[in-house]
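Table S4 entry, EF-hand domain-containing protein.
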Amino acid sequence: MVLTQEEYKDFEERSGLKINKGETKNDHKSSKSIDSSTEISSVSSFTHYSKQDIVHKNIRDVVSDKLNCRLYAVIQAMKSLDKQRNGKILPRNLHDVLNIFCHPLSEKEFSQLLKKDDLDENGFICYKSFLVRLTKKVEEINNAFEDKENDYNKMDLNVEELEVKMKQKVFL
């Protein structure tokens, strides 16, 4: 797993880890500071960056930042899942897209991102308004929808093609 610079800074802040330039040298003087009786922990014993540490406000910020970076791909994935072509998808589909393109979210974290008025009477979510609310990029989202309106009917990915595209995003 590779951390972005922002995630690494967040990790440093949470763990209290501060690396000085002198600590990263691999020379004879720096190696003398560890005596032979000192046990050196394995990498697996270090505390890991746990997503449970992220509070609700930060979850919204993390998802919003990731959405801002990958907005076009997220919109395309949501359009592919919108079989009725009405701008609405099931909450579990939205959750899957956010997990793949943005940040892994538990059910509780996902439900915190949703507002009660996000769901319509049939239990669907208008993903356009959801994206606008989280990203505040009204114009860009409208452009992404308008640019592809003519191609919308041509873009008829089946579920297998969508799964392949989503898996490619995960392993990049």
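The longest helix spans residues 56-69.
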